[in-house]
Amino acid sequence: MFQKKDFVLAAVIAIIAGISALMVMFAQSGAGTSVRVTVDGALYGEYSLSGEQSIFIDSASGYNRLVIENGSAYMAEADCPDKYCMDYKPVSRGGETIICLPHRLVVEVTGTRDAHQPDVVVQ
Amino acid sequence: MTTRQAAYCAMLTALAMIFGYVEALIPFGFGIPGVKLGLANIVIVLALYILPAYQAFAIQLMRIVLVSFLFGNLSMMIYSLAGGILSFLAMDLLKRADGFSITGVSIAGGVSHNLGQLIVAVLVVQNLRIAFYFPALMIAGLVTGCLTGMLADRIKRVMEL
């Protein structure tokens, strides 16, 4: 059922996946400050992750409703055929994304909050 | 093309379509877009081993186009075709390379299928961030390709194909 070359192939794939996974984790570190919504590659809007808001996104092929609360964003409603975009857990780290492919919609977290900066300086 | 081969092509195309339909009933790959069981690939990889390559390729193209027309839409077809064509090319290449089992060929098919779809997704949405899914899709392709390959191997032996 298996041959030697199969294991070599599997190992190569696993190694490539492992290295790229590390790269992705590095790129997605750090809490984000806002989300950037693009439809068809064009900017739809940017919204802060602080506070609470519900954003209705109307695209040529349908609608999505993005909700921001507790410092993260998630897709509450969508009329796309597969509704994969609603499966995502809420995103909050820089680089994380929510994607609705049928609507060509991408929500990405931007702006890393520097954890080492003091929040307030009192003199 | 012999009559037998023509009959096989038609039957395997229909079978691949049904496998794809059944697979849609099984929830899999929670949250990660593009992750599928790839059950239809069992049929395709078997076809590659029992029919001439061009006929197996025809089965791949036909089942993708037909399923997209029947149950999907044009944009879905673009993703499926990209994944399906790249997947077939990779499998055919590996089979000709010798030294790989049907399982290894299937692994290559699974990984390249996801890769093809990922590339198209990046191009359609025009956002490079989608490439972040690359590692997850590679592993998913490896695992599903391995499972479907093992099934194809078993079927081939049991049915003496």
What's the topology here?
The complex is a heterodimer of chains A (123) and B (161).
Chain A (H helix, E strand, L loop, with lengths): L3 H24 L4 E8 L2 E7 L4 E7 L2 E8 L2 E7 L18 E4 L4 E8 L11
Antiparallel strand pairs in A: 1-2, 1-7, 3-4, 4-5, 6-7
Chain B lengths: L2 H22 L15 H11 L2 H19 L2 H24 L4 H24 L8 H25 L3
Descriptive notes:
The complex is a heterodimer of chains A (123) and B (161). Helix content of chain A is 20%, strand content 40%. The radius of gyration of chain A is 19 Å and the shape is flat. Chain A is α+β, with helices and mostly antiparallel strands and 123 residues long. Chain A has a domain at 32-112: N-utilization substance G protein NusG, insert domain (mini-chromosome maintenance (MCM) complex, domain 2). Chain A has one helix at 4-27; strands at 32-39, 42-48, 53-59, 62-69, 72-78, 97-100, 105-112. Chain A contains one helix and seven strands; from the N terminus they run αβββββββ. In chain A, a hairpin with a 4-residue loop joins strand 6 (97-100) and strand 7 (105-112). Chain B contains six helices and no strands. In chain B, helix 2 crosses helix 6 (134-158), helix 3 (53-71) runs antiparallel to helix 4 and helix 5 (102-125) packs antiparallel against helix 6 (134-158). The two termini of chain B are 18 Å apart. Classes of the chains: A alpha+beta (123), B mainly alpha (161). At the A-B interface, helix 1 and strand 7 of A face helix 4, helix 5 and helix 6 of B.
Q: How many DSSP-defined strands of chain B?
A: 0
The number of helical elements of chain B comes to 6
Structural class based on helices, strands and sheet pairing of chain B: mainly alpha
Oligomeric organization of the protein chains: heterodimer
The biggest beta sheet of chain B is recorded as: none
**Rg over CA atoms of chain A:** 19 Å
Nearest-integer average pLDDT of chain B: 93
Domain unit count of chain B = 1
Approximately how much beta-strand content do the residues of chain B carry? under 5%
- Regions with little confidence, pLDDT below 50 for 5+ residues of chain A: none
Order of helices and strands of chain A: HEEEEEEE
| CATH level-4 homologous superfamily of the domain at 32-112 in chain A | N-utilization substance G protein NusG, insert domain
